[in-house]
Design goal:
With 191 residues, the protein is α+β, with helices and mostly antiparallel strands. It is 28% helix and 9% strand. The protein has a domain at 58-177: Orthogonal Bundle (Cytochrome Bc1 Complex, Chain D, domain 2). It has helices at residues 20-26, 39-45, 63-73, 75-78, 118-128, 139-152, and strands at 2-7, 10-15, 60-62, 161-163. The relative contact order is 0.16.
Length: 191
């Protein structure tokens, strides 16, 4: 808000800070542009995958298929075997007992020792990878990459096929250390 005042014969224009409540009170109820999203538009971006597998799309992939994709699209950032980096280390099972990350923050948080759900690997890869073209991988490529990473972390057999029904059945070693959310859902925002 601009205020004008006269001081020693000079007119000054001063910006006065307003509180959030005052700004909210002055805001129009509607800005006069935009529209509600259609159900089709919402469905196009509603791609979250739940820990129990709800939301997994059709598709399938194996570790062998994923190894080829990993070499082409992932190794540059995560290393040839997923243990080198320079970005996040993806492969490693140590420590195999306990959950000592608070006592030793230097331990790498890998898929094999830290991630609680295999479905989260799929969800993250599909949304964020590769960083130069997030969301560009097909569902089959994401299933194959997930299978490759789970096999590299000694969590599934080399010939296992990952798909809608098998991926959620993979039990991750760190699952027991994560506590499900028990707080009530937050209230819905006012229209």
């Amino acid at each position: 808000m601009r205020r004008t005042a006269t001081l020693w014969g000079a007119t000054l224009s001063v910006t006065v800070a307003m509180t959030g409540a005052a700004l909210f009170a002055q805001a129009p109820a509607r800005f006069g542009f935009g529209r509600p999203a259609t159900p089709q538009e919402i469905a196009a971006i509603d791609s979250d995958v739940m820990p129990d597998g709800r939301g997994l799309p059709p598709g399938r992939g194996t570790s062998a298929e994923g190894a080829v994709i990993y070499a082409a699209k992932c190794a540059q950032c995560h290393g040839k075997t997923g243990t080198e980096g320079p970005n996040d280390i993806l492969v490693g099972r140590e420590p195999r007992t306990g959950f000592v990350f608070a006592q030793n923050p230097e331990l790498p948080h890998t898929i094999g020792n830290y991630w609680p759900y295999a479905t989260t690997v799929f969800d993250y890869v599909r949304r964020a990878m590769p960083p130069t073209a997030p969301g560009s991988l097909t569902n089959d490529e994401v299933y194959a990459l997930t299978a490759f990473l789970l096999h590299a972390n000694e969590l599934i057999a080399a010939n296992a096929v990952m798909d809608q029904s098998t991926l959620a059945q993979v039990v991750m070693p760190a699952r027991q250390y994560f506590v499900p959310e028990s707080r009530p859902a937050p209230p819905k925002p006012r229209p």
